[in-house]
């Protein structure tokens, strides 16, 4: 028996998530991973590397709870929000019995994580405006333990209608967890559902330091939920999910000064987003630029695959969304520096379509 034959069948057949770094490229303008475009310096202050770190570092938990407006008992820190996605499946889903549900076009890790654990997933396509098809969800809830909703949604960039989220939470009460993935919420903090946690015990919120906090390389995320949910997740999380350097830097990033700096970065990105959107709408090959509440924009572009390859060859790496439902002809563009945006604008203006 070969090594591959020894592996689980679903893993042999699994298509891994195509992360920006996995897709590769040799560009110098990286606008495909929704990262902050410049590095933020930190000084490493903890030297006790001979000791294992805390499972849930107190300084990180306390600082994030203060920032998010919850109690420390409602916070779990993990290796990115991606680990939070997986922990929920591990804690709540019986492989082969329970299912998860999400609404494409959306973040690709929901399906990959479910498949990895042998948990079936169901999809209910979003409506034409990329809002939730509530009736479709209601018709497919039987046996579903987890519903993942990304808001603002990646890759479309829009906030999910709060009233629709309330309807979803009411229809799932007592039988299904609703996970609001708020990876980009710092760009539209008024849309957060964190204030709903007391009202809905089955609401879970995922957060990250990868975007507005400019710490994608740190791999630090958070799950916000009621204490009962957090206690269950603590049973299945790895013994030491955060290394000492990660916890050290995360605590600094979540200090009062760190929060101020983050909000300044958000303002910078929103200003650069407005500049890029305005310019793109005057370019002949750009058919439509969709509204965004995030650090990226989605644009429908004539001959998008050829344009994507042309910019790739020029060292400008975007994210092709053509394979996502309802996103034919769409490219996703991370908001970079003014110089990077200008490179994109100039390259698109030069396209002959």
Features:
353 residues, alpha/beta, 7-stranded mixed sheet, 4-stranded antiparallel sheet, 13 helices, globular
How would you portray this structure in words?
The strands form 3 sheets. The protein has a 7-stranded mixed β-sheet, sandwiched between helices. A 4-stranded antiparallel β-sheet has the order 9-10-13-12. It has 353 residues and is an alpha/beta fold. Helix 5 (80-92) packs across helix 6 (109-116). Helices cover 36% and strands 15% of the residues. The model has no long low-confidence stretch (mean pLDDT 94). It contains 13 helices and 13 strands. It has helices spanning 3-6, 9-12, 20-23, 58-68, 80-92, 109-116, 134-139, 162-172, 227-236, 244-253, 256-280, 304-313, 338-349; strands at 29-30, 75-78, 99-102, 121-123, 144-150, 177-181, 203-208, 221-224, 286-289, 296-301, 316-317, 319-320, 330-334.
């Amino acid at each position: 028996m070969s090594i591959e034959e020894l592996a689980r069948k679903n893993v042999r057949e699994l298509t891994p998530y195509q992360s920006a770094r996995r897709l590769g490229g040799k560009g110098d303008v990286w606008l495909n991973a929704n990262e902050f475009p410049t590095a933020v310096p930190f000084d490493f202050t903890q030297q006790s590397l001979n000791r294992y770190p805390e499972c849930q570092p107190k300084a990180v938990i306390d600082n994030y709870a203060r920032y998010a407006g919850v109690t420390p008992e409602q916070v779990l820190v993990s290796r990115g929000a991606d680990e939070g996605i997986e922990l929920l499946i591990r804690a709540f889903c019986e492989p082969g019995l329970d299912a998860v549900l999400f609404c494409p076009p959306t973040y690709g890790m929901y399906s990959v994580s479910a498949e990895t654990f042998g948990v079936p997933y169901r999809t209910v396509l979003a409506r034409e405006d990329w809002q939730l098809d509530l009736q479709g969800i209601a018709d497919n809830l039987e046996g579903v333990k987890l519903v993942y909703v990304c808001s603002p949604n990646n890759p479309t960039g829009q906030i999910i209608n709060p009233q629709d989220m309330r309807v979803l939470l009411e229809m799932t009460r007592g039988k299904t967890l609703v996970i609001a993935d708020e990876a980009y919420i710092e760009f539209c903090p008024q849309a957060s559902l964190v204030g709903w946690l007391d009202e809905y015990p089955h609401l879970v919120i995922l957060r990250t330091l990868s975007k507005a906090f400019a710490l994608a390389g740190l791999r630090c995320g958070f799950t916000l939920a009621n204490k009962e949910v957090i206690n269950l997740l603590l049973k299945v999380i790895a013994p030491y999910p955060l290394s000492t350097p990660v916890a050290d830097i995360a605590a600094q990033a979540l200090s009062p000064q760190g929060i101020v700096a983050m909000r300044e970065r958000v303002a910078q990105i929103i200003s650069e987003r407005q500049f890029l959107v305005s310019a793109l709408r005057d370019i002949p090959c750009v058919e439509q630029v969709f509204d965004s509440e995030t650090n990226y924009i989605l644009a429908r572009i004539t001959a998008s695959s050829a344009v994507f390859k042309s910019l790739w060859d020029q060292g400008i790496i975007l994210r092709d969304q053509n394979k996502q439902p309802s996103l034919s002809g769409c490219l996703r563009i991370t908001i970079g520096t003014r110089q990077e945006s200008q490179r994109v604008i100039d390259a698109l203006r030069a396209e002959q379509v």
